[in-house]
Amino acid sequence: MSRVFGIIGHPLGHTLSPLVHNWGFKRFGIKARYEAWPTLPEELGAFMVRLRETPVEGLSVTIPHKTPVMAYVDAVTDLGRSVGAVNTLYWRDGELWAENTDVEGFCRPLVLRGIAPRAALILGCGGVARAAVAGLVRLGVERLAVTGRSAEKAAVLAGEFGLERVDWDRRADFPAGLLVNATPMGMTGRLEGLSPYPAEALGPDHVVYDLVYTPDPTHFGADALAAGGLVVSGMEMFLYQAVEQFRLWTGRILPDDELRTLLRKALYGA
C-alpha cells in the first residue's frame, strides 16, 4: 500500500513540494505519494479531523496555516514553539507532532558557506522573518536587528525575540554584515522591480540572503552582486527545509546536489 503525504495551504499555486518529495520517494524506492491539498483557513479544522481518520503519514504546512495548525496537534517541538510557527507534521509513537524545518533550512546554507556575521539585519516582520531570527539566534550572531515598513509589527517581533528595532527609513545606517530579505519585494510579478534595500548602501563586505528566489537573481541580489557582495539564494532555504522534512518522514537524506539541479531546472529552466 502506498504511503500518503501532502501539503496544505492557500493558495498553493505552483508549489514545488510535490516535485521534491515525489522525486525523493522514487529515488529511494519508497512506495509513497505526495499530494497538494489547497485548504482555506475556514477548512483547516475539518481537514485536521480527516487527517487523523485517514492514513496520512506526514504533512507540509504553508501560509496561512503555520500558526493556526499548532492548535490541532498533540505536541509541538521546542523550536516550533519558540518560532511561533510550524511547517511540518509527523507521527511519533502514535502522537501527531509539529516541527519547524524552516529554521534548519535557513541556517544550513550559511553554515555550509562558512558565513558567520557579527551583525545581521532582517528586512521584514512576517512568518519567514521569524524563522530567520530563530536561525540567526541559533548561529550565535552577536547583534540582531529587525526592520519593516510597519513600525508596529517590527516592534512586536523585536520585543518578542529581544532584538534591536531599526526604523525602515534608517535601515542602511545599521552596520550589518548580513542582510536578510524576508519581504516579498523583488518577487516575480508586480513586485519584481523593487528591492528592500538601497543599492547605493551595498558594498563588497555585505552578504545578501534573499529569501525571495524568483527571479534569479532578484533586484536586491543583482544590486549586491554589482557592488561586489556575496548573494545566497532563498532557493537554498527551500531546498534544505525540504531535506529536513524528508528526513523526519523517512529517515533518508535527500542529496542536496541532485535536488538543487532538479529545483533549478523547474524554476529557471537551467
UniProtKB/TrEMBL annotation:
Record: residues binding NADP(+): D78, L211, G234
Coiled-coil region: none
Keyword Protein transport assigned: no
Key words of the record: Amino-acid biosynthesis, Aromatic amino acid biosynthesis, NADP, Oxidoreductase
Active site: K66
Residue sites binding shikimate per the record: T15, L16, S17, T62, N87, D102, Y213, Q241
The protein's annotated pathway: Metabolic intermediate biosynthesis; chorismate biosynthesis; chorismate from D-erythrose 4-phosphate and phosphoenolpyruvate: step 4/7
Catalytic function, reaction form: shikimate + NADP(+) = 3-dehydroshikimate + NADPH + H(+)
Gene Ontology cellular component list: cytosol
Keyword Amino-acid biosynthesis found: yes
InterPro entries given in the database record: Aminoacid_DH-like_N_sf, NAD(P)-bd_dom_sf, SDH_C, Shikimate_DH-bd_N, Shikimate_DH_fam
Residues covered by the Shikimate dehydrogenase substrate binding N-terminal domain: 7-89
Signal peptide boundaries: none
CDD domains: NAD_bind_Shikimate_DH
Pfam families per UniProt: SDH_C, Shikimate_dh_N
One Gene Ontology molecular-function label: shikimate 3-dehydrogenase (NADP+) activity
Domain SDH C-terminal span(s) in chain numbering: 234-258
Oligomer and partners: Homodimer.
UniProt similarity note: Belongs to the shikimate dehydrogenase family.
PANTHER family, per database record: BIFUNCTIONAL 3-DEHYDROQUINATE DEHYDRATASE_SHIKIMATE DEHYDROGENASE, CHLOROPLASTIC, SHIKIMATE DEHYDROGENASE
Protein name as annotated: Shikimate dehydrogenase (NADP(+))
Lineage: Bacteria, Pseudomonadati, Thermodesulfobacteriota, Desulfovibrionia, Desulfovibrionales
Gene coding for it: aroE
